[in-house]
Design a protein that fits this description.
By secondary structure, the chain is mainly alpha-helical. The chain has one domain. It is 61% helix and 5% strand. It is built from 6 helices and 2 strands; from the N terminus they run αααββααα. Helix 1 crosses helix 3 and helix 2 runs antiparallel to helix 3.
Amino acid sequence: MTSKVIEEFAKLLVRNVRDVAIESCDRQLLPESQSPTAVRWRKEAEKTSGPGLANAMIPDCVDEAVFALLLAVDQGILRISITGSNGQLVDLGANGDGELGGWYMGSGGWRAQYSTQRFIDDFEDMAG
């Protein structure tokens, strides 16, 4: 029984997190894409390649994968609970108000609050 549930989780995780993140990043590479990320990647590609370009793209791709995970939780596709350090069990989907992805990616959100690594906030100037 448990192995079937784990397999179900694996399938949902790969298709709704990994594959969605790759598809999103691939769209950023399309010449017609005008998202802030796509524009930034093109500008960086004009200046540099190899490690310099990868340095710009890696945080965006990781953020896209984390966002896809949180969106899957927000949408009820992945039902995930966490046990806090106080022992309290919290269902993230039920208690996240459908906003986990926004709380992560938003200006001043979880990335800004907790990350010790680089990230680009393309909407920082819109925070208010």
